[in-house]
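Let's practice the habit of predicting before peeking. Look at the sequence and jot down your guess about where helices and strands might fall. Then scroll down.
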Amino acid sequence: MTIKKPLAIKQPEVGQIIHDLRLAFGLTQEQFVATLGVTYTTINRWENGRSTPSPMAMRLIEQKLRDLGEQGQDLKQKYFGK
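Done guessing? Here is the structure:
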């Protein structure tokens, strides 16, 4: 079994993609934390550039991009160029 490495992204872009992804789903930070299984403080820190998601969290974020369909692919292209 091959373990896929999560997408690499530079800080401060990580905060912006999380913000854009959350807004694309129409969710507040409080609502978005439930979809990722992290705390409000964690999402807030990511969006404000004070910390970056772990590799496991990045895989969850990638899944959310896939779940968003074409709009998610557009965001992925914008931030990851893939």
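How did you do? Residues 13-80 form a domain with the 434 Repressor (Amino-terminal Domain) fold (CATH 1.10.260.40).
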